[in-house]
Amino acid sequence: MTASGLxxxxxxxxxxxxPANRANPYPLYDDIRARxxxxxPDGNLVVFSRYADCDEVFRHPSSASDxxxxxxxxxxxxxxxxxxxxxQPGFLFLDPPDHTRLRKLAQKAFAPRVIKALExxxxxxxxxMLDDIAAAGRFxxxxxxxxxxxxxxxxxxxxxxxxDEPEFGRASALLAQSLDPFVTxxxxxxxxxxxxxxxxxWLREYLRGLIDRRRSDPRDDLISGLxxxxxxxxQLTEEEIVATCNLLLIAGHETTVNLIANxxxxxxxxxxxxxxxxxxxQRAAAIVEETLRYDPPxxxxxxxxxxxxxxxxxxxxxxxxxxxxxxxxQRDPAIYAEADVFDPERANLxxxxxxHGAHFCLGAPLARLEARIAFTALTARFxxxxxxxxxxYKPNVTxxxxxxxxxTV
Length: 409
Hints:
three-stranded antiparallel β-sheet, monooxygenase, iron
């Protein structure tokens, strides 16, 4: 394969980082996808944006999640930079056998019976929020529903005191920005990097304190469960528990918030689906899945070639980074008819919104449950709801989502 010229592809990636494109990055994704894989040999990077390529990377046995396996990371370590500036990563950013072991212990907290048991509590939380919305006659999608619901649920699941939420919520939001691929795309640290490091240190210290309290006073929560979890004589270390809770806390804050808000926006911009769901709650599951395809909470994913591999005719050398533009892949016209149309009724509703393979999102059942209940209750209670403002977006690239959206009911 002949590598693409570097100037124009590099410009496309820089445009992707530009906040001016956050409100609607999809035309830019179309431009990137039309070029095919972008190859940057000097930067040890290949960017994939077609569905078939991203799907193949997820499934490939030599596709790794641990950034320390990358040539770029090894060069940085050799130059004296810290291997893991934010501390030990959660299992999402590790590979077997570590990923397998940690996920197996953590997934007990996400067993089907645990998620099912949360259904009534989620419904009660949603109804209380809708009561407040009804009294006000309007609401901000983020502050009045999409943010407080997942926060309350993840606090309940982890055993984090809800009164501590403002502090760890702020830290979580800063750490979510650290997932943006500024270093991968530009080779430079982004503005605000030190503030994110400080937030990461604070959050880890907070979690250590909470773990200490749960050791002496265990409860029916995930942290107590991780302390007690054992599989074949193996237990998690304190750093592994901290890293796992850190991962789940951030994921629980950001991704489900985006899923709920993006789905509400898509339905209000396509009113027949809002009206149809209000009349038939059985449509909710399809609304969730189409939102995950059409406007996914996680827009990008990174992988490393643990060995040289070939994806759709493109050879990726060992140690090179691979960036998967999932939001571009899920509007690939080779896979979806009318890919830019929000259509929960489409016949072949598949997506990469939760990943694939060994790293498939552990919290997917919980996110689906929360979004399904929120969509169903909201449309039933307020069938005449209308957008009251233009959407405003956070600066995040990877976990792209709304910062505010006014709705009148």
